[in-house]
Structures are given as structure tokens and as C-alpha cells.
Amino acid sequence: MSKIDLSIIIVNYNTCELLINCINSIEQYLFNVTYEIIIIDNNSKDNSKRWLNQLAQNNRTVKVICSNINLGFGKANNEGLKIAGGKHVLFLNSDTYLIDSSIKTIIDWIESDDSCFGAGCLLLNPDLSYGVSYGQFPELITVIKEVISNKYCEFRAITPTKKNVVKRIDFPCGAFFIVKKDLLDKIGYFDERFFLYFEETDLAKRAKKSGYEIYHYGYSKIVHIGGASQNRRSSFITEMNFASWSKYIGKHKGKVESYLIKQLLKMYFCTKILYAVILKKKAVYDYFKEELAGLENGWIL
After folding, report:
1. Furthest-apart CA pair in the chain: how many Å?
2. Which of 47, 64, 82, 100 could lock 56 by a disulfide, CB 3.0 to 4.6 Å apart?
3. Which fold has domain 4-224?
């Protein structure tokens, strides 16, 4: 028996209403692909579990795994991968939704290139403007470019300026990352040491080290609302981001580069804070004050 085309894996954490919208959009627009939807609930406290159990009973294309603890993003996805039966796997955020049938084109395209491990698509904001879709690996050279050009985050989180562009990239935004299942089996699943953030970055890095390519495929597009399961920016989220970032650097680049990045970021943040104090820019001050605290408390050397 041949495999289905696509396994869509969605990790849910307290985003029931958004998840309903996401599932409805898949059922509306993914009519030209054989697929299954695997949803892993990370011990949500909203109505997610009850709705998911009802959904699984009434929809044969949907499989549900309900955890009694928060597994984190990488480990939850790995649980879904254990039962995934598709030729391709789409890691999809619950705060996304389809607006057309263009996912079919990205599946056809990655199948045409043996060197392609996977791809991201054009992510749109809710107003349909272009959103952050991919980035450069968050390593020392990238941080140096951001500091010198005073474009913090802008090289690690890139917003395309044109649609219908296909190009090699370092890694896609984790809201949409489609990969070939056989190659994923070959290089290994998500590193579960990353509880939140940098899971897709690490996966893409390992794929590239194994000789495969990652692409941005701009002919396919979805809407990404962004940050829904976090609800708001917080010191915990900021610290978690820096903790995962430092784990990534330690794993792939080593302690020396980790130390250099931390010192460079610290210098940059302190400079921005001083600038904000002098010019009385409270928003800038608050942002970089939190970034500095997150760096100091989260970065692991």
C-alpha cells in the first residue's frame, strides 16, 4: 500500500479557537492532496482536549495525542512523527491557516529535487502583507552583521520583499516547514533538548551538514498570526529564547563562539539602553532592558 502524500503535524497549547480555524482551512483548501492531520496537545487548559477528542471521533483523517504534561515543541512533534505515515511531513503552527491550494505545488516541487531536504513557504500576516518567513543561521557572523548595521534580528528573521521567489536559505520559520520523511528518518528527528525555539534551526543545520538543501518556496503561501500560544511577551519567553539560542551555538559552534556572541550582544544591548536613556525613548529602553535581562539569565555557556 502506497503512502499518503502528506502528514500534517500540529502542536497545540491553549489555542483551541485558532486550531479550529486552522483545521477548517486545511479541509477547505487541501482537496488535491492525500493527507492526515496529527495533533499533539501539550496539556492545554482551555477547551482544546474536549474539542480534539470529538474531532478525532468524527474525522478519520485526524489523529490526536493528548499529553498530560507540556512536552515542549520538539518532543511533541517527535511523538507525532512516530505515527506519521506520509511521504512528506508538514510541521505547521496552530496559529496559521490556508488561503488557497498552493501547498500542492510545494509538494510537487520538493519531490523534483533529490538534494532538497525541505522548504518553507511565504508567510503572510493577517492583513496579507509579507511576514517573516526564513532566516540566516544565528551564528557569530550573522550577529556581527546585525550589530554593525544596527538591524537586530533582521538577518535571523527575514521578511521577503517579493512573492513567487525560490531560493536556498539556511532555515525557514518554524510555523511552516515541509520535509521529506525518508530524509528526516535518515538525519534524525527534533533534538528534544530544545524545549521551545531553535528546533527547526537545529534540524535545518543538521540537514545541511548532511549535504541537503533547504529552500524558501514563495509560490506557496499561508497566513501566520504569530505568537498566539505565548499570548504576550514575557521575561520567561525571552529567557527561553536565549537559553535555546545558546544551546544551538554550543552544539554546532562551541563554547568560544558562544562566549563571543554573548559579549557582543551584551555590548549592543547596553549601547541601545544608553541611547534610549539619553533620548528618552521608553519603548526602546524597555525592549532592550528585557533583552539584556533575558541574555544574562538565559544564556548558557
Report:
1. 68
2. 64
3. Spore Coat Polysaccharide Biosynthesis Protein SpsA; Chain A (3.90.550)
